[in-house]
Amino acid sequence: MKKALLIGAAMLSTALHAETLTIERIFSSPSLDGSAPRTLKVSPDGERVTFLKGKQTDYERLDLWEYHINSGETRMLFDSNDLQSGEEVLSDEEKARRERMRLKGSGIVSYEWSDDGKALLFPLGGDVYYHKLGEKGAKQLLDTDAFETDIKLSPKGNYISYVRDQNLYVKHIASGKEMAITNDGGGNIKFGMAEFVSQEEMGRMTGYWWAPDESKIAFTKVDESPVDVITRTEIYADDIKLIEQRYPKAGTPNVVVELAIQSLDTNERTWVDLGEDKDVYFARGQWMPDSTTFTYQWQTRDQQNLELRAYNTQTKTQRVLLNESSDTWVNLHDDLYFLKDKGQFVWASERDGFKHLYLFDNSGKMVKQLTSGDWVVDSIEAIDTQNDRIFFSGRKDTPLESHIYVVPFDGQGTSDIARITKLGAYHDATFSSDASIFIDRFSTVNSPFQVSLNDASGKRITWLEENKVEEGHPLHAYMDSWTKPEFGDIQTKDGATLKYRIYKPESAVENPNKKLPVIVYLYGGPHAQVVTNKWAGNRGLLMQHWVDQGYVVFTVDNRGSNYRGKAFEDPIYKKMGFIEVDDQVAGVEYLRTLPFVDADNIGIHGHSYGGYMTLMAMFKAGDYFAAGVSGAPVTDWRLYDTHYTERYMGNPNTENDAYTASSVFPYAKDLKGDLLIYHGMADDNVLFTHSTMLYKHLQDLAIPFETMDYPGKKHSLRGKQTGIHLYKTITNFFERNLK
To answer: How far apart are CA 524 and CA 547, in angstroms?
Structure first.
């Protein structure tokens, strides 16, 4: 009896101390993610680790910190409030650039080391600060009324470079002398700048590249005049702006890009012949180590062919080093590394169906394939030229976790690949320049990011931030009620294997016959993956909140999504919104086999492509989904941009029927369940027009639905209060319609 009383008292004590995770707490400080830093870098001299860290009082206000490896001392290098007080005023160009770079927060949001490790550069408020190690404070190198963007240190640290008013400038740091590389930018002409689709869809955020010896700069000239002008609204709380924007919708003209290379000593400028066909993409640029040869990646408009070209600045000649081709599309990547003094380069390719690494000589002849198998390489992390080996991230052991592996250049196959990170977590690595040490930033779906400094074998040297969820950690109070998800596989009727993740409320375990509502969360689009063993930030915390409220929360990665190989991606080609919906339905059919699932009350929610998928699921598979929340959805792919849309759907001028079949409008008449659509009213990615067209269409069909639109908000709907409102709106909708 006494034992029973003690057990009961212990259970009561646990219940009293267990805190309920509220939506307000998800967005409050201190962050439930804990104190793990971000934007971690090892200084080029290997002596220190620098990182950005949010303030305890405001986790979105970032300061620059350092950890000195030999002394073990951690200290703040710069307090962002000391450098700039008050709210940072960003230019429209910088706002758009940060949105596309997914840069969040305020204060010091980015920084750069000089290649010699003797100085740091960090932009702040449209100007730039420079700190030389050993000296006190930071020197402001730019102080102008203009907002400079894409600010870089030159490779040897003698100059900074930047774009101002659509022209490219360099400034000598010691003398303060500024030189305009170009003067004719303005209007439709932009020098050294990446155009909209390069930033948004190609992941190329710059339009200029320094030669390693600082003797030359390669840069693009972009002429936007062929691009159609669209007039879009940006609706704010007290103002409506009419924005005339050159936006290349699918099937319409793109910008014309030219490439120039200019000598800093002589100002001689050479224009590189990109070919007669101007309707192409300039995807990437990179110098060879000799500072003589500039390479660039040239891609056809249909994205089925990609050439790596090399231009010799001395002979004024160029050649094609390699070609990648596909019957669907060729994915871009950043895995091109030239090996100094070896006359070779490493390149990633999907030519065998999975992304793997290959070694070529500088003439373009393949030397060997370095990795192989039915798994994918994520990216090259470092190259150890001293020991002739490559460190890379990949999914050799499981597609749910990214791990760090090493492979020697003289390896004989898969057996020579060694994993140096531990299974059971998702790892992001940042290596020192000599690849002797690396920062391991890792997490699981149940534990936020932890950060350690490791040697090249993977052995931990020290913790940079253990961030252990124990007494004192912000998340610790919620651990008693924390629900760990389960992972598993689903076999589709046509033989595909899908990965899923499921959160089960405690009541599903205690009483498996009690029927519970389900929220299916999804993205579903290409170049993304949702089912991972990785900390999911606020979105993952929202799922915990839903589980606390008695929902089963389920996610399945359908075909078309990433890290499963090209054959897993390709079924969406010219048929978006078909196989993805079929696979989501397969997920619901699995859910229906579980005794605790209420098959009549399954909801679905996603944002962006997930918003599109929510609409297609509600319209095409209404018998499976009782309610849906669609965030910032694409509704007609003709309204979206060229590079992304035509990659997967072809050109609407020749594929009109495919575009019609992949839009949501032919299926909207079949809506059966309850639908909520939300959108940022200043979205310049998925334009607000996508939603307003659907609003009108559903109204014309006299079909009821709900909306929640956010004045002044872009695609990501940033802001703490906005986040609280959005999460409550979604949750309240499901409360009304699934319970």
So the answer is: 22
